[in-house]
Design goal:
Elements: H1 11-35, H2 42-50, H3 52-84, H4 92-108, H5 115-141, H6 161-171, H7 178-183, H8 192-221, H9 231-240, H10 244-277, H11 295-311, H12 316-345, H13 350-374, H14 380-408, E1 420-427, H15 432-444, E2 449-454, H16 457-470, E3 476-480, H17 487-498, E4 504-514, H18 527-535, E5 541-549
Parallel strand pairs: 1-2, 1-4, 2-3, 4-5
Helix pairs in contact: 1-6, 1-8, 1-12, 1-13, 2-3, 2-12, 3-4, 3-10, 3-11, 3-12, 3-14, 4-10, 4-11, 5-8, 5-10, 6-13, 9-10, 10-11, 12-13, 12-14
Length: 552
């Protein structure tokens, strides 16, 4: 802690401020849950009420938040493990990457957010932390709670309001889970909005109670953040020693953090699919895999989260400054969108709802500024810069898809003139594969042409002689190549053919024999592949590959 142990007297006031902020955000999001029963994530609310640009900003902030949720949750879970088993401290990066890979693999296999699967770790966490807080508070009230030994003084900074605000912004990461409920309304049982609202209320009460309890105990014990042990671990160890219950607390902490990371594996792909549906992200992200999950989104999320773990060496304290900026931007845009919603739609009690969301937008907006300023040099600048870059990427993708749709529109059908098609069969040798390609070419045009590029003059006469036996009257055009290049003369001849008439299309028929075994491909040159690559981006050229499968 920059201001040292002397600043711990501000722990409880800062904790109370964060708990109050949690109450404001939870109450504000209650309105969103009822107004958008099919799912009211920040992207949907901001886009519907504020327009596309604010919606994209909210989406970019949320995507960053989802990635950071995985990396921060996993890093914190690993920290809980290494606090109980310090011997693993040097392996925390590897452990973090392994955890992310395991969660991603489980989601790719089609794991569903089942209440039965997630109930036990959740109840275990609430129970163990409830016992921890209750035991600590009772011992504190009875005067039986002894402060931990004060560590040797380190280099400190004078306590200022800036440092107090920095501590407040660090604690605001406790609120980042609120958005998940508004995104996941369809997963609740009917009536979805009511059940989601009840869940949000209970989450706020439980989270606020446990957060304040841990804050009070940290103040009473004089706990100072350490690099090798979490605050919860220090509190639990001081209350229960190194016994079974201590390890149970650390285990439940790890499990609940893994579940928090898993929440992003549902939200990130779903949000990306919505963006892709609206043509702001690659369309591949709308595709469900064979396990009915958005596999591409899962893979991208896992890769980005693992990259952050590696870059920041699995340090939770290094990742935290990046974390809260994005989610509070999305909070602010969502609540601002709800203000616009009530002004537009009104309805019963709309003035009260407007006031609630207005206060929520104002408070979360102020907190966003506080976090961005106090954490800017600690890493928040990365998110501040990254959000507009991502939004520009969304807009570039959207312009591309709009341009493609315009060019493919059937409105252009009346402007299409007749096409003049010239079919060229590429001949490198005379064999059954070439004969098959020639017969196919004759189905495309009455008078196809065969083209042979002369790279060795000694072979030309032999090729012409054999061609006469199989050509059926199709002429063989020999293109000389003084530099033994096959592509140059071929491309020049294609240009010449296209100049023969307007709206000319050249169809290149390429014979290609396919070996039976994969390793046999290495024994042959890849001329067909080279030609196809060279012709792919040429306008007015159609490439047809005619395979001849070998049996041995």
């Amino acid at each position: 802690m920059l201001a040292g142990a002397a600043a711990t007297h501000l722990t409880v006031p800062v904790g109370l401020a964060i708990a109050g902020l949690l109450a404001v955000v939870a109450l504000s999001y209650q309105q969103t849950l009822h107004a958008y029963p099919s799912g009211g994530g920040s992207y949907i609310v901001a886009r519907a009420n504020l327009g596309a640009a604010p919606g994209l900003v909210a989406a970019a902030a949320l995507l960053i938040d989802y990635v950071l949720t995985v990396s921060v949750s996993v890093a914190a879970g690993v920290a809980a493990i290494t606090s109980a088993a310090p011997v693993l401290l040097s392996h925390k990066v590897v452990l973090g990457v392994v955890f992310i890979a395991a969660i991603a693999f489980a989601n790719l296999r089609g794991v569903r957010e089942s209440g039965r699967v997630f109930a036990l770790p959740t109840y275990l966490f609430i129970a163990t932390f409830g016992v921890l807080v209750a035991t600590g508070i009772l011992r504190w009230l009875s005067g039986d709670l002894r402060p931990l030994p004060t560590p040797p003084p380190a280099a400190t900074t004078a306590l200022t309001w800036f440092l107090v605000l920095r501590a407040f912004s660090s604690g605001c990461t406790a609120l980042t889970g609120v958005e998940a409920i508004s995104n996941g309304i369809p997963a609740f049982k009917p009536p979805e909005s009511r059940n989601a609202a009840i869940t949000l209320a209970w989450m706020a009460v439980i989270l606020g109670t446990l957060f304040l309890g841990i804050t009070v105990l940290a103040r009473a014990l004089g706990v100072i953040p350490a690099e090798d042990e979490t605050i919860v671990s220090q509190i639990a160890r001081s209350l229960f020693g190194d016994g079974l219950f201590y390890f149970l607390i650390q285990g439940s902490t790890t499990l609940i953090l893994v579940l928090a990371a898993n929440t992003s594996f549902a939200g990130f792909p779903r949000l990306f699919s919505l963006l892709a549906r609206d043509r702001y992200a690659p369309r591949q992200f709308t595709t469900l895999g064979d396990r009915l999950v958005f596999s591409n989104g899962v893979v991208i999320l896992a890769a980005l989260a693992a990259l952050l773990i590696v870059l920041f060496r699995g340090e939770t304290h290094a990742l935290i400054p990046l974390y809260a900026v994005g989610v509070f931007i999305s909070f602010t845009l969502s609540q601002s969108g709800m203000v616009r919603h009530w002004l537009t739609h009104k309805g019963g009690g709309w003035r009260v709802r407007l006031a609630v969301n207005g206060v929520g937008a104002l408070v979360t907006g102020l907190v966003t500024v506080v976090i961005a300023v106090t954490k800017f040099t600690n890493g928040a600048w990365i998110v501040v810069v990254l959000i507009p870059v991502i939004v520009l990427g969304f807009l570039a993708i959207h312009r591309h898809y709009e341009s493609v749709a315009d060019e493919l529109s059937l409105d252009r059908l009346a402007d299409q003139p007749p096409v003049r098609n010239t079919v060229l069969v590429l001949v490198g040798d005379v064999h059954m594969g070439v004969v098959k390609a020639l017969r196919f070419a004759e189905t495309l045009a009455d008078r196809p042409r065969a083209v042979f590029v002369e790279t060795d003059p000694a072979r030309t006469g032999w090729v012409e002689q054999r061609w006469g036996k199989v050509s059926g009257g199709v002429p063989l055009i020999v293109l000389t190549s003084p530099y033994r290049s096959m592509l140059g003369p071929l491309l020049d001849y294609i240009d010449q053919v296209q100049r023969e008439g307007p709206n000319s299309v050249v169809t290149i028929v390429i014979p290609e024999f396919i070996p039976r075994r994969w390793w046999q491909h290495l024994l042959h040159n890849q001329t067909a592949l080279l030609v196809k690559g060279a012709l792919l981006f040429r306008r007015g050229v159609v490439v047809v590959d005619v395979p001849f499968h070998l049996n041995r």
